[in-house]
Amino acid sequence: MKVRYFAWVRERVGKTDEEIEPPSSVATVSDLIAWLTKRGEGYAYAFENPKVIRAAIDKTHVRAETKIAGAGEIAFFPPMTGG
Amino acid sequence: MPTTVQLQREAFNAAAEVAKLTRGRTDIGAVVTFTGVCRADENGEKISALTLEHYPDMAEAEITRHVEEASKRWPVLGVTVIHRYGRITPGEDIVLVVTASSHREAALAAASFLMDYLKTRAPFWKQVEKPSGKTWVEAKAADDAAAERWK
User: Which residues in chain A touch residue B123, judged by CB atoms under 8 angstroms apart?
Assistant: First the structure.
């Protein structure tokens, strides 16, 4: 699946997007955050406070407990500040 | 219902957008226009510019969903939402919401609803340029509270 990062999550991870293949034990959005956190320092920094991280699956807002099975694109970003 | 949702780097002309929405219509009795403008300060600190990052496809989909929701809640006769991205300097417009209805209550409520949702649910992030460097704007609890009242 494709993962995209925005704003300071993108800056901390150090990339805008990437293809990942998490193991099947990674079932939910929060599992994926925990799995990504172990990929390196930048990830650990980006996801140090998982409670503030927002996520979207295939361009729709989702919660931390949402299952990721079948997702084509998952995005992680900080709380939004548009308008 | 005529609906326009546009994400663009360029400036917009609010008066021209209102004219576009109301041209040839005699059923519209109220038009509400909200324009969000870039200020020269953020939390008391001077800023020289802000840069808006966005998630292109999702932003358009999310705004369109909320325009549809607004049209279910109120008898609106037309909606235009334009949100800019990229670098914007103080005094420039950032966002435009135009709502039209037969009467003012629906147009005012729909515009307010759309702005509250744009602030908290549309995937845009502001970064400001201060003398001390660039910082990301933090989400405000007041904006979350404003969006909550529509639930």
Answer: 6, 56, 75, 77, 80, 82
Residue B114, number of CB atoms within 10 A of its CB: 27
CATH of the domain at B15: 3.90.1170.40
Q: What is the ipTM of this complex?
A: 0.95
| Partner-chain contact A83 B125, CB within 8 Å | no
> pLDDT by residue (tens digit) across A16-50?
999 999 999 999 999 999 999 999 999 999 999 99
Strands A60-62 and A17-19, how do they pair? unpaired
Chain A contact present for B94, CB below 8 A: yes
CATH domain A2-77 topology = Ubiquitin-like (UB roll) (3.10.20)
Asked if residue B17 lies in contact with residue B5, where contact means CB atoms within 8 angstroms, the answer is: no
Longest Cα–Cα distance of chain A, Å, equals: 38
Q: What distances in angstroms separate CA A55 from CA A76, B111, B117, one per listed residue?
A: 5, 26, 17
